[in-house]
């Protein structure tokens, strides 16, 4: 429920206003916020970040971002077809080692480990 989500998030987010915004976003579009569930796009994004974290050591991030909005699973298939001249890598990936550290920080903050990610 909205209330339970709000209370559960207190463990991670102390600011009640920020927690409220998170809950509103998660529950938007639902006619009954007391029922389990969340906005479907957020579920897709969550699935995506879990996959990214699961394979963070082997993903070719510069190529992935250069190819545009594609699944990391398709990178090897698309590699020979990509036109990569003059593509820009996002600013947060300019330092790939730092980006990988940020992924590790995301895992630590969310108390995720390899077992949780399903390796």
Automatic annotation (TrEMBL):
One of its GO terms (biological process) is proteolysis. It comes from Mustela putorius furo (European domestic ferret). GO terms for molecular function: metallopeptidase activity. This is Uncharacterized protein. Its cofactor is Zn(2+). Pfam families: MATCAP. Keywords: Hydrolase, Metalloprotease, Protease. InterPro entries: MATCAP (IPR012548). PANTHER family: MICROTUBULE-ASSOCIATED TYROSINE CARBOXYPEPTIDASE 1 (PTHR31817:SF1), PTHR31817.
